[in-house]
Design brief:
Layout lengths: L5 E3 L5 E3 L3 E2 L5 H14 L3 E3 L7 H11 L7 E6 L6 H15 L4 E6 L7 H16 L3 E7 L3 H10 L6 E5 L7 H9 L3 E5 L20 H10 L3 H11 L3 E2 L6 H8 L8 H8 L16 H4 L7
Length: 295
């Protein structure tokens, strides 16, 4: 039995590789889901201002009785709050909703390529929050290689994490390589391909994939467990989400088996290069901007 691996970020901060995500989890279900995750053993919770459930995550943390310094809490600034002063205020809103003085990892949710000047200003605000000790690490989400290159050129602190869509049907190897080159941890959202449906290619879901199913049967594990193990063995962070207690527990039980090199390669080979989430290049304030409520 291995324990959940810890990844050391590029500023020395330790982060549990496996986190619990609450993307698309309704606020009414978030408290119980996060409490269940903490009871199961998760010590890394991922939320975002745009998810509308930071307050409920904070409530679950306070009710859980788990000491604050034992839980790694990550949240994201939405594009509507980009800009130096707006992003400083976005931290205040998130911290108040989470009922936390310090956020472990604060990241920019999208690159916003049409207003990258605002993205740069937002990231500089993250740098200031880091310098002030209000956040322990900073990063980005959905940044492609060109966005990373432009950000690194204009700012001082290399992001600790880049949270991107990664699963067996969409691996983004070029982005993974760019992250690795700069010492940035790649963190997989939709790590078991839950957002994607591949009807046009005759595939429905990674969970029904025959290759993954065969590997799962060989190890006496579920397809979801195999995919999460694949991420962890390849050095990524992964943040599965569920509101079902049995699945929350199942997704955490991924440390008592190892995939072979051949099995990892077989999963890699399933890549369709087909994105399930929105194109980062399509992120505009006009299409995606929406106000984030005050705390």
């Amino acid at each position: 039995m291995h324990s959940i691996p810890t990844l050391t970020l590029n500023n020395g901060v330790a982060m549990p590789a496996l986190g619990f995500g609450v993307f698309q989890t309704p606020p009414t279900e978030t408290v119980s889901a996060v409490q269940t995750a903490l009871e199961v053993g998760y010590r890394h919770i991922d939320t975002a201002a745009a998810y509308g459930n930071e307050r409920e995550v904070g409530r679950a943390l306070s009710r859980s009785g788990v000491p604050r310094d034992e839980v790694f809490v990550e949240t994201k600034v939405w594009i509507s709050d980009y800009g130096y002063d707006a992003t400083l205020h976005a931290f205040e809103k998130s911290a108040a909703k989470l009922a936390l003085d310090t956020i472990d990892l604060l990241i920019l949710h999208q690159p916003l390529p049409t207003r990258f000047d605002l993205t740069i200003a937002a990231y500089r605000a993250l740098e200031a929050l880091l310098a002030d000790g209000k956040v322990r690490a900073i990063g980005v989400s959905n940044f492609m290689q060109e966005h990373l290159a432009d950000l690194l050129e204009a700012t001082a602190v290399v992001p600790a994490v880049n949270q991107i869509e990664v699963h067996p049907y969409f691996r983004q190897p070029d982005v993974l390589a760019a992250d690795a080159l700069h010492g940035i941890v790649s963190q997989a959202w939709s790590p078991i391909g839950g957002i994607t449906f591949y009807g046009e290619s005759g595939r429905t879901s990674t969970l029904q994939d025959p290759t993954i199913g065969e590997i799962a049967a060989r190890h006496g594990k579920s397809p979801a467990q195999v995919m999460l193990r694949w991420h962890l063995q390849q050095g990524r962070s992964a943040i599965p989400k569920s509101v079902t207690p049995s699945r929350i527990g199942e997704n955490f039980a991924v440390t008592d088996f190892d995939l072979t090199d051949a099995e990892l390669a077989a999963i890699d080979a399933l890549d369709t290069d087909h994105r399930g989430g929105p194109e980062p290049a399509s992120m505009t304030l006009e299409a995606w901007g929406r106000p984030i409520p005050e705390a």
